[in-house]
Specification:
Number of helices: 5
Strand order of the largest sheet: 1-3-4-2-5-6-7
CATH architecture: 3-Layer(aba) Sandwich
Structural class: alpha/beta
Number of strands: 7
Order of helices and strands: EEHEEHEHEHEH
CATH topology: Rossmann fold
Strand content: 15-25%
CATH class: Alpha Beta
CATH superfamily: P-loop containing nucleotide triphosphate hydrolases
Largest sheet: 7 strands, mixed
Helix content: 25-40%
Length: 203
Amino acid sequence: MKITTATFQGSSPDLASCPTSALPEFALIGRSNVGKSSLINMLTRSEGLAKVSQIPGKTQLINFFSINSTWNLVDLPGYGFAKVGKKQRGGFSAFVSDYLQHRPNLLGTFVLIDSRLAPQSLDLEFLHWMVTSGLAFILAFTKTDTLSKNAARKNVEAFLIRMREITEESPAYVLSSSKDGQGRSEILELIESAILERSDAPA
């Protein structure tokens, strides 16, 4: 897939105010500061399209990016905010779950996992919710450029072992790095395949 245009479409505080669109959508979600904005900029090769912040929990809205005017990338708030109150934190969970469960044109969700870390409970709790809710996902292990290949492989394997506690099915996953572009072609191929599969489906 070749990306020719990528533009910020807008932000929404809840499902009801999300833009009305029949275009295919692909969401990115993960722990705060896992690298969602950096991944969006890497995928689109548009530096600065998504605002990168060093402050965990900066993304507090559902952000929409129009790609080639034919599909949307959606940046969802990170789970596990460090600097918001419990009441607001619960609100984030509510509107994120509403979007993931009830957005009709959502074709895929990439759950970003920091490859530098041992399996984190927040990630596993969120993925348990995804599985019990019957929602499909693909794991995207980020920041792989910061580790040796062997160290990254060990962390990924450790995470996949913990995933067996949640689901018997082995989840699909990709390794990614916003710095060197690793995973870009794989992610775009997955998106392109989902779009083609949708267009081939009977009406």
